[in-house]
């Protein structure tokens, strides 16, 4: 009975250890830099207006203005809901190409994401 | 005819001196006259025999806006409505030239509707770009304020011999562009005006200015020239807009253009700031920069008199 318990607890310890290792590995995977880029909206401008990224990059737009804005692809491939002050929109670019976008409220605000292989 | 137009122009230019402080723009037999707001409110109409009618333009209430310089756009809208109620001559109706709400939320539309209902007056709306932000791109606004309208919310109506046209230039905006009316609406406008006598006074209202105030900030309408061509044969055209939260005006031929103040927050004069964002004025100045526009139509006159007054006045 006692021996059995010991064996069990050893097995349990090994399981816990391997679980810990796995979580460490997955944490490391997460920490490995997933390609990301950021565009700030300020003063009714996309800053920066042209951003070049690698395929698979996630771009985050953050509205730094006191007025709501949107981020809408000219080709319709992405479209944010309205972003109030401080709100964000993200989109991951899986395809190579040039993606022009604009603010549907203030259409003079335009930007481009250039996605390379 | 030319002399008359010249007189119009001179008179109007003279009137422009009052812009920004509260102005009466009265066009009397082709010669413009201007008097200060206080005396305008007190002065009897010259042609007392004919009962004039008035309507009031409210604009850019942005219900829900709560950032500097105005922590409560509901409160200032309520003040604007109180100002309407206090007018010595009650208007026949109100027009709201858009940006009723800040984010097209139901509670914002609802509060605006309740506050306007308290006037007991009919209200005619056109949407601003802030009213198009629901997931269905403007349906929430149209279901509430645009019943019986065409397309994205345009329509016309007649009142005591004056033809009123509400246009929508905030729908389906194009990348890199400004305001936009679109081919379908322009076709409708052509049909709406066809067959009307050129002597019919017209009042055309829309959210974004129908002339280019400042292209760098998108303060204009890409295809407005096509609309103005359709208006050109009419003897008296008054174009009322909002969007830019300040008074600007000009006369081109027989067309008088005018933008109203917001009831929520002022915006900078064209090009005087890095962006057209809210002008963060001190609290004691805010109400000097918000206001309403009272429009008077006198029978027998071919022009409408516009009185801009601030919430502080």
Biggest sheet overview of chain A: 4 strands, mixed
Order of helices and strands of chain A: HEEEEEEEE
Q: What is the helical fraction of chain A, as a range of percent?
A: 25-40%
Strand order of the largest sheet of chain A: 2-1-4-6
- The CATH topology of chain B is given as Purple Acid Phosphatase, chain A, domain 2
State the CATH architecture of the largest domain in chain A.
Sandwich
How many DSSP-defined strands of chain B? 13
Large-scale geometry of chain A: globular
Averaged pLDDT of chain B: 86
Portion of residues in beta strands of chain B equals 15-25%
Could you give the distance between the termini of chain B?
A: 38 Å
Share of helix among residues of chain B? 10-25%
Please identify which CATH superfamily of the largest domain in chain A we are dealing with.
Cupredoxins -  blue copper proteins
Largest sheet of chain B: 7 strands, mixed
Order of helical and strand elements of chain B = HEEHEHEHEHEEHEHEEEHEE
| CATH architectural grouping of chain B | 4-Layer Sandwich
Structure description:
The complex is a heterodimer of chains A (117) and B (313). Chain A has 117 residues and is α/β, with parallel strands linked by helices. Chain A folds into two domains: 1-32; 36-116, Sandwich (Immunoglobulin-like), CATH 2.60.40. Chain A is 26% helix and 37% strand. Chain A is built from one helix and eight strands; from the N terminus they run H-E-E-E-E-E-E-E-E. Chain A has one helix at residues 2-31, and strands spanning 36-42, 45-47, 50-54, 57-63, 72-73, 88-93, 97-102, 110-116. In chain A, the strands form two sheets. Chain A has a four-stranded mixed β-sheet with strand order 2-1-4-6, with no helix packed on it. The longest helix of chain A has 30 residues, at 2-31. The radius of gyration of chain A is 23 Å and the shape is globular. In chain B, helix 3 packs parallel to helix 4 (106-117) and helix 6 packs parallel to helix 7. Residues 1-50 of chain B have low confidence and may be disordered. Chain B has a single domain (54-310), classed as 4-Layer Sandwich (Purple Acid Phosphatase, chain A, domain 2), CATH 3.60.21. The termini of chain B are far apart. Chain B has helices at 2-16, 37-42, 73-85, 106-117, 139-145, 183-193, 224-231, 283-286, and strands spanning 23-28, 31-36, 53-58, 93-96, 123-125, 155-159, 162-166, 202-205, 237-241, 249-252, 255-259, 291-297, 304-310. Chain B has 313 residues and is α/β, with parallel strands linked by helices. In chain B, helix 3 (73-85) links the parallel strand 3 and strand 4 (93-96). Chain B has eight helices and 13 strands. The longest helix of chain B is centred in the first third of the chain and has 15 residues, at 2-16.
